């Protein structure tokens, strides 16, 4: 769609001396994005993300979810990465900047750590963090490990979506509220052996150096402050509105 110069207050074309201001656009879907100075544009809902990306992502989702459900069980979907994987599909079809921004906060740093561990193992033969050890477990089916490569793709998809849709600065608040729900629920319904979202300890095993509920309380504070906030500040600066 062609870009049109911003009109002056009288309704005519901008004069040489008119001040030029940054302009935002707002699609009917509710998403907004910062445009270059001096231009304004009208965008129809559904035009910001290509249809093929939505269809391809949804097909992959429909393959992964039943396989994970059967092999790992439904509680595995309490992992923030799995929650993000599901909600990203909704964000795509709705072209929701808020949902895409929230899921980017949720997984950007954890998935960065996962990828560092995974590619570090591929390159050096050693795990740096131990987050991706199951990817090299020959006892687990190859198809299952191949599907888990979504950990590589998901951060790229979400950053691309935030670039296209803009970063919604409300994401930090809403993602924090979501974590306040997910972390206690995970603690209540999952097995410490699985240690989903690390609610029982920072490593693979439950911690024993402080009361479990005190550790959970610290974790509830840790995620918004140490995981979400740095990503929020960076994305707001790069893509915010």
Describe the structure.
The structure is a single chain. By secondary structure, the protein is mainly alpha-helical. Among the domains are: 1-8 and 21-46, no CATH class; 49-175, no CATH class. It is 55% helix and 4% strand. The chain contains 7 helices and 4 strands. The chain has a two-stranded antiparallel ribbon with strand order 1-4. Strands 2-3 form a two-stranded antiparallel sheet. Strand 2 and strand 3 (32-34) form a beta hairpin. Helix 1 runs antiparallel to helix 2 (80-94), helix 3 (97-124) packs antiparallel against helix 5 and helix 3 (97-124) packs across helix 7 (212-239). It starts with a strand and ends with a helix.
Gap between N and C termini: 22 Å
SSE run = EEEEHHHHHHH
Structural class: mainly alpha
Low-confidence stretches: 1-44
Describe the main β-sheet briefly: 2 strands, antiparallel
| Largest sheet, spatial ordering of strands | 1-4
Instruction: Give a count of the beta strands, DSSP E runs of length 2 or more.
Output: 4
Mean pLDDT: 84
Give the CA-based shape: globular
Count of helix runs: 7
